[in-house]
Specification:
The chain is α+β, with helices and mostly antiparallel strands and 338 residues long. It folds into 2 domains: 14-164, no CATH class; 198-330, Nucleoside Triphosphate Pyrophosphohydrolase, CATH 3.90.79.10. Helix content is 21%, strand content 29%. It is built from 7 helices and 17 strands. The strands form 4 sheets. Strands 1, 2, 3, 4, 5 and 8 form a 6-stranded mixed sheet that branches. Strands 12, 13, 14, 15, 16 and 17 form a 6-stranded mixed sheet that branches. The radius of gyration is 22 Å and the shape is globular. The model is unreliable at 1-11 (pLDDT under 50).
């Protein structure tokens, strides 16, 4: 196992290069109902806790930077908390995610420009030693090892689900925390509920040496990215790719190939990266979804990565799976559909 806690991988496994994809935890799926074992792990002084409140990680301020890991006593002392879920074990150390009650964190500034980064200011009164911040800019800054972002992303997604699924969807009664945080169960009708992951297809259409990219108004100025959309019930991944590209750009897709995936904790999606063979070139932009959509040559993409495109166009940030799909196509490492 690598020093940063990530699992071993080969260079061909593109998913491992995406943000939030590495944490290397043994999730102990066969021991989650052993309450005595879970309580023993929680009581172990070596165990560490990540804390989430109002869907944001809570960090300790250091003289230089931040620390996302707390002892159990430090985590519980922050304030009233709800669930505490097992995230997994790595190198003999157990990691948990602790969910704060919303009352612990105050929103001081509700300014939000609707961009890709939530800029609202969240604080814990009386705790200047703690920092509450949106996970996305923290990941963009790259202050922590990749395994830490995987840990934070797992905690954020799992605790988000608990915060919003407190009642049984079958009968409406309050549900109970169970399975060390990987299940909720209804004491009334006995229904079982499990954490949800929403599949999203994100895809690069290619044709005769060009690729199709679009941009939304909330994107940073000049940034273009691969098209994306939620996979719907009853669809294959391939059909979702074809439908989404057709809906957003008017481009029909033939062959589709899988490239990589990425856990995306905003709030709890799985990005499924694909490449598709475009069958036509005439673009009809869906203006409700996109601000613009256009074909880019291989030379354009090279310049976008080098940040010297004459029109100021840029590739997505390396945190995003779109960055790695586009880079693989640029480098000739994607399936050859043209």
């Amino acid at each position: 196992m690598a020093d940063d806690g990530s699992r071993p991988f080969t260079p061909a496994e593109l998913s491992t290069h995406t943000g939030f994809a590495l944490n290397g935890l043994d999730r102990l799926s066969n021991q989650r109902d052993d309450q005595a074992h879970i309580e023993g792990l929680m009581a172990d002084p070596a165990s560490r806790f990540v804390v989430v409140g109002r869907d944001r990680p809570v960090l300790k301020r250091l003289d230089e930077g931040y620390d996302p890991l707390f002892t159990r006593a430090e985590a519980e002392a922050i304030g009233k908390h709800r669930e505490c879920a097992l995230l997994g074990v790595r190198d003999g150390v157990a990691y948990f995610g602790l969910l704060l009650d919303d009352s612990v964190i105050v929103i001081e500034d509700v300014a939000d420009e609707g961009g890709m980064v939530d800029i609202r200011h969240f604080v814990i009164p009386g705790r200047d030693d703690l920092f509450v911040h949106d996970l996305r800019p923290l990941a963009i800054e790259g202050a922590f090892a990749p395994a830490i972002y995987g840990l934070l992303g797992e905690a954020k997604s799992l605790l988000y689900w608990h915060a919003r699924h407190r009642f049984c969807s079958a009968c409406g009664e309050p549900s109970d925390f169970a399975g060390a945080g990987w299940r909720r169960q209804c004491p009334s009708c006995r229904a079982l509920h499990f954490p949800r992951t929403d599949p999203v297809v994100i895809m690069l259409a290619v044709h005769n040496g060009d690729c199709l990219l679009g941009r939304q108004p909330r994107f940073n100025k000049g940034m273009y990215s691969a098209l994306a959309g939620f996979l719907e019930p009853g669809e294959t991944i391939e059909d979702a790719v074809r439908r989404e590209i057709l809906e957003e750009s008017g481009i029909r897709i033939g062959r589709v190939a899988y490239m990589a995936s990425q856990p995306w904790p905003f709030p709890s999606s799985l990005m499924i990266g694909c490449i598709g063979e475009a069958l036509n070139r005439d673009i009809v932009v869906d203006k409700t979804e996109l601000e613009d959509c256009r074909w880019f040559s291989h030379g354009d993409i090279v310049k976008m990565f080098e940040r010297n495109h004459p029109q100021g166009f840029m590739a997505p940030h390396h945190l995003a799976i779109a960055h790695h799909i586009l880079r693989a196509w640029r480098d000739g490492e994607a399936p050859g559909f043209g």
